[in-house]
Amino acid sequence: MKKVPLDARDRAIIDELLMDSRTSQQAMAQQVGLSAPAVRERIRRLEQEDVIEAFTLDINSRALGYTLEALVRIEPLPGKLHIVERTLQDMPEIIHCDAVTGDDCFVARMVLRDIQDLNRLLHPLHDKARTNTSIIKGTPVRRRRPPFADE
């Protein structure tokens, strides 16, 4: 994939969208010094060039009754990789999962109603994988954009 050149206004639009993707194009236009139609066109171009892949929604899991989140490193037992992957996909409490290199094949983020929930959620993996779990205490770095190439 080729690197897409971004000017200062493209970057400002991206930063505004990251702060609040619901900001009106008129308000964003005032922030970045363009007209609303120009902002709309730049956003459309950034989407077409795959710089912007999606507009997302952050969910407060605590408001839904989940008091804890955990990271689970998962090492499938021999011959169980695809079974483990399907098991993870079928667990609604897994809110994010990456396939990774190294001893573990997956790193999953899960939500828990309480610490007792952990055994119930890990039980389907016991005969398929080794797991290592860490409870998340906080998030000192929230999701953010990568640095632009010339930063």
What is the overall pLDDT average?
93
Distance between the termini: 20 Å
The main sheet orders its strands as 2-3-1-4
Oligomeric nature of the chains: single chain
Number of helices: 5
| Name given to the CATH homologous superfamily of the largest domain | Lrp/AsnC effector binding domain/regulation of amino acid metabolism (RAM) domain
Q: Could you tell me the strand content as a percent range?
A: 15-25%
Largest sheet: 4 strands, antiparallel
Tell me what the CATH architecture of the largest domain is: 2-Layer Sandwich
Number of strands: 4
- From the alpha-carbon coordinates, what is the Rg to the nearest angstrom? 20 Å
Classified by CATH, the class of the largest domain is Alpha Beta
**What structural class do you assign from the helix and strand content?**
alpha+beta
Portion in helices: 25-40%
Shape: elongated
* CATH topology description of the largest domain: Alpha-Beta Plaits
- Please, how many domains? 2
